[in-house]
Design goal:
Belongs to the AAA ATPase family. By secondary structure, the chain is α/β, with parallel strands linked by helices. It has 16 helices and six strands. The relative contact order is 0.10.
Length: about 350
């Protein structure tokens, strides 16, 4: 923990600056998580999201508003989101913009599937101590002529009517359902009218209402709709190093859950680098989680073999190939479950 973080934390507390307190505390939790103390980082985050925790000006309780027609409460963010600094800095910038009350309140998160857009909105709610409510598009979109546009108007009336009392963030997850290009010949005229209605409603949205939309289809978006957002955040800015670091953090979390102690980071990274292109965090999480979950509980190295098989599509039993992949004899012993002496002999015989 840096000295300046402690100073900022105490200063925010003394000034009764709840938002500043939470932002600084979140940064401290993130630093613990990045330094390898994941459990402490998650514990701090759980304290921040607990309404009964002693934090300045936190609401005493959070209610689930019932009777909403087009909005559903989103599930809570269960763990600290792993984002590269370049994106996390934008998320914290949104926190600052909201707290400055300058009328910057409509945000669009765009990027490929699995980049963490929806979870980032939940993380934003966690930092700001706000519940996130998602638009239910199955209720909103109607096959009857003109009804979808009427539903959009009703949705925004619903939002305007409850935001002050319940201090929410409204999430339009995969807003492309409404945001097709109105000039596209393949677009249905009914959805074109719906998009036009959405534009008008966004123009009239109260500046204190926080709205975040996500999309995987940004290049197909109606340009007029893009202009309605105060800021567009790209989630496609992961480098390969970012993804490798995130994969390692994901692994450590699952190993913590199973209390597995064998953590050969170098071997893990070598296996992950066998992929020409590391996938985004959503897919990374599935690959690593499956390898750990399916591993033999009596063999703490089994997840390495399963990870290799998942990535290469075959078992790690070809010593010549493992050697070409620059694995050491010790690493080959782990991957093949053979002794080093056996591997040495078999490699010599293969020459």
């Amino acid at each position: 923990m840096k000295k300046k973080d402690i100073v900022n934390l105490i200063k925010c507390y003394a000034e009764g600056n709840d938002a500043g307190f939470r932002t600084t505390a979140y940064q401290i939790a993130k630093e613990f998580d990045q330094s390898g103390d994941t459990q402490l980082g998650l514990y701090l985050m759980s304290l921040l999201s607990d309404a009964n925790t002693f934090v300045p000006q936190v609401q005493e309780s959070k209610e689930t508003y019932t009777g909403l027609q087009y909005l559903d409460k989103a599930s809570a963010c269960e763990e600290m989101l792993l984002l590269p600094d370049v994106i996390m800095n934008d998320i914290l910038g949104i926190v600052n913009a909201i707290n400055h009350h300058m009328g910057i309140h409509r945000f669009l998160f765009e990027g490929a599937p699995g980049t963490g857009k929806t979870e980032a909105v939940k993380q934003l709610g966690r930092i700001l101590n706000r519940d996130v409510y998602m638009v239910n598009f199955s209720e909103l979109i109607d096959s009857r002529l003109g009804q979808t546009a009427k539903n959009i108007v009703a949705l925004f009336k619903e939002m305007n009517g409850i935001y002050q009392k319940y201090n929410m963030i409204f999430l339009f997850d995969e807003i492309d359902a409404l945001a097709l290009d109105r000039t596209n010949n393949n677009d249905l005229r009914e959805m074109g009218r719906a998009t036009s209605t959405l534009l008008k409603c966004l123009d009239l949205l109260d500046k204190d209402i926080i709205l975040v939309a996500t999309t995987n289809l940004y290049s197909y978006f109606d340009r007029a709709l893009i202009r309605r957002f105060d800021s567009v955040i790209s989630f496609n800015r992961y480098t390969q190093d970012d993804l490798l670091d995130i994969a390692e953090k994901i692994l450590n979390r699952y190993l913590d859950q199973l209390h597995l102690k064998n953590r050969d980071v170098r071997l893990f990274r070598k296996i992950m680098k066998l992929m020409d292109q590391l996938p985004y965090p959503g897919d990374l999480k599935n690959i690593v989680r499956t390898a750990v979950a399916f591993s033999n509980p009596n063999d703490e190295c089994d997840y390495f073999r399963r990870l290799y098989s998942a990535i290469c599509g075959k078992n790690p039993d070809n010593l010549s190939e493992l050697k070409k992949q620059k694995f050491t004899v010790r690493e080959m012993a782990i991957l093949t479950n053979k002794s080093k002496s056996t591997i040495d002999r078999e490699l010599k015989e293969a020459l």
